[in-house]
């Protein structure tokens, strides 16, 4: 009897470990540039800045995004300029998220567009802290000029760097 319960416990632990490994590998999946380029819409070029309502001195918006999610500085997300809302499928409360490819300083990343806002003139996108750190690890630039943002068709994207 002891052997059966030990075997059952061992089996459960192995099954859990396998499921965690599979889930982790799905989260860390990286889309190829060719797949991403095929799904891209028209390019929008402008400047990008960072938005984090939890940082001291932040005067933009609040902690809840237009999609209804709470702002999380550790996710690959962004807010687009209000006038671009329809180009990104609406970005509405409770709706499925939309995605975009953001390119700057020789790097590419897929972000979830979960917010909109009246951004500072000349800026087309406000990046989450995680996303801004990808382009500017020290967060010293404040604004990144010459950023290209392209809407991605479909809703199967995994946010993060494009390899």
Mind explaining what this structure looks like?
With 163 residues, the protein is of the alpha+beta class. The protein has two domains: 1-29; 31-161, Barwin-like endoglucanases (Beta Barrel). It has helices spanning 2-27, 33-38, 129-135, and strands spanning 44-50, 77-81, 98-104, 107-117, 123-127, 143-152, 160-161. It has a six-stranded mixed barrel with strand order 1-5-2-4-3-6. A hairpin with a 2-residue loop joins strand 3 (98-104) and strand 4. It starts with a helix and ends with a strand. It comes from Bradyrhizobium septentrionale. Residues 45-137 form the RlpA-like protein double-psi beta-barrel domain. Pfam families: DPBB_1 (PF03330).
List keywords for this structure.
globular, Septal ring lytic transglycosylase RlpA family protein, alpha+beta, 163 residues, six-stranded mixed barrel, RlpA-like_sf, 29% strand, Barwin-like endoglucanases, RlpA-like_DPBB
């Amino acid at each position: 009897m002891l052997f059966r319960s030990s075997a059952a416990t061992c089996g459960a632990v192995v099954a859990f470990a396998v499921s965690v490994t599979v889930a982790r590998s799905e989260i860390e999946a990286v889309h190829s540039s060719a797949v991403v380029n095929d799904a891209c819409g028209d390019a929008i070029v402008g400047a990008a800045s960072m938005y984090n309502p939890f940082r001291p001195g932040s005067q933009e918006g609040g902690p809840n995004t237009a999609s209804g999610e709470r702002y999380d500085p550790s996710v690959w997300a962004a807010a687009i300029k209000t006038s671009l809302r329809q180009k990104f499928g609406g970005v509405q409360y409770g709706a499925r998220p939309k995605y975009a490819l953001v390119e700057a300083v020789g790097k590419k990343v897929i972000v979830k567009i979960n917010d909109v806002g009246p951004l500072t003139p000349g800026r087309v996108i406000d990046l989450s802290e995680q996303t801004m750190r990808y382009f500017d690890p020290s967060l010293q630039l404040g604004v990144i000029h010459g950023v290209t943002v392209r809407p991605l068709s479909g809703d199967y994207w995994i946010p993060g760097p494009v390899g």
